[in-house]
Please model this.
Amino acid sequence: EYKSYLRMSGIKIPSELFIGSLVTFGIILVTSFLISVWYVRRYGHQAHQGLLPRAIAVLACTTVLATVLLLPVDVFITSCQKTTNGTWQDWASDNATRQEIQNGILYTYYTCYSLLLFYLFVLIPFAYFYFEEGDNDERPPGLRLCSALKFTICFVILIVALLVSGALVQFGDMPNNNGTIIDDLQFLGNQIQNKGIRGAISFTQILLTISGLIIFMVYSAYGLSAFPFNFIKTRGNVKSELENLRERQLMSREKERQLLAKYADGRPMVPADKKLMKTLKKDNDRYDELTCLVEREQQSWCGKVRLILRPFTIVLGIALSLLSLAFISSITVNLVDRYVHSNYTIGYILPKIHYTTPFNLILGHAQTVFPMDYIIILVLVFYIAACTVNGIRRIGIWFLWVKMFEVVPRRTMPQGLLLLSALFCMAMVALNSLMLICIPTYTTYGSQRYVLNGTVTPCDNKAPEGECSLTQLASILTRFTVRANFFGALITYMTSFFVVVSLCTYV
Model:
């Protein structure tokens, strides 16, 4: 029972709940900021210390991590509204009080999503086109500014069009069907409204989720297997690796010397030789960087400690591989549940969870020991974020069949850093949707229960209206899928493809 209360906007809120949620979200923001700064410093080019691209990348990554990590706070506040015997807490017995508290979380989500849209459609495009030519751009700053604004306006028009479409387009009511599935979902449909700014942000968020799932299928699926394998695989002798690098570096420099000697008389290079010279210069820069890293590792005490801890890194790699498989298997179990017990008509929304996923089971027990569920979610989110960045680093940034940038520690150009942060943001937005599939009961209702015919029952989509509250994440993500089944079905199919690609990377 709560002993002290705060009065805000005319409603009574337990002070422990308010302070605990505020402190937790503050810790989430600080942690997200520090990790974002570390990643940007790690991958940013040392010779191109552009403050604007780095600042935008840090802010974008911090915002998207805070958005994903808001989930435990959302679940905590939703779960605290009910007692273990299925009745409402005294302070939450009034629907207006519950609505006021839920709106606080909802507006926090909307603020985060609005900031992400601002970064993705305004700041990142502006900075990308402003620094498009890098340090070789000899145009006056005013001309560069006009050029960047010209391209940015196109992105602004696009996002305004999407927001207006989401606010104005009205989807139909629940499908007209006498089946029990539709009847079971009536409670869910009554809780969710698609109007005004809520509909606009939910619509753009669904589109970002679909775009992010493409990133997940390409980069995260590969990273989930490649990242833990880095800890397991046996690395060769550092001395032989250094000798091999120096040998390749000498061969590359010799080719460059021969090519320069070919045009020593001042003749202009033919296009093929220009392209070859550019490739050789990039190879030499990469060899210089790798040689420097290996030499530093050879001389540092960290390299010696890493050699001593080699058995522990193998165990860590195996543990991370099991974490990846647990994540993929949890999604697979829920997808099978959707295909068996739901259908396209309602966007594959489940009226009731029939098959419990591994993560759903773990977090259900972890909720009873504060703050174990927070720690598990924190570890899972940061692990998937690391896998996504690792996948982007290994594959590179491509546009269709054209490789635009390589993501290399301390060698990534400012434009590449901006694109890396944009891809990362879209992937993390998609992770919110995958959390609902991976941990369906926890992310939708938390630990809420209701009384049905004298029996205390965990909340699900079949609960009578007024007995259970959705988390705000579930409310946002299902806002369109309840009445626009196409979005729910598309996300389900794309998630299925992500699982197939993930499993293929282990082969």
Remarks:
- The first helix runs from residue 15 to 43.
- DSSP finds 18 helices and six strands in the chain.
